[in-house]
Amino acid sequence: MSDADAGQPQAPDFDRMTRDIADVPAVEVITTVAVHLMSAAAVNLGLAEEGPQHKDLDEARKLINALAGLVTAGATEISSFHAAPLRDGLKSLQLAFREASVVPDEPGQGPGEKFTGPIFG
């Protein structure tokens, strides 16, 4: 490699990236995406260290809906061993959303409840 080449950005190795993704089991992809959705929802619920600074219930609702859809659809594919903690986390976020709302949704109308059914504390 010459000095002129050193300043040039390297093109991504898409073949290697594709092989790397192909080696990741589906259960790992599903659980990783679910954890990212949970984390983002928690931040938008104001549960992060800087709490209210990042609170956005509209964004939290969207993330919890997406999480509920993923967990509900993926549960049979990833086994109860992996699905149970995701369901617990989802329920905790749904309850936190209800608590954070000035006017709570009717039972069955909260985020993700079209997938999970009504959530009660």
TrEMBL record:
InterPro entries: DUF1844
Segments for region (Disordered): 102-121
Name used for this protein in its record: DUF1844 domain-containing protein
Lineage: Bacteria, Bacillati, Actinomycetota, Actinomycetes, Kitasatosporales
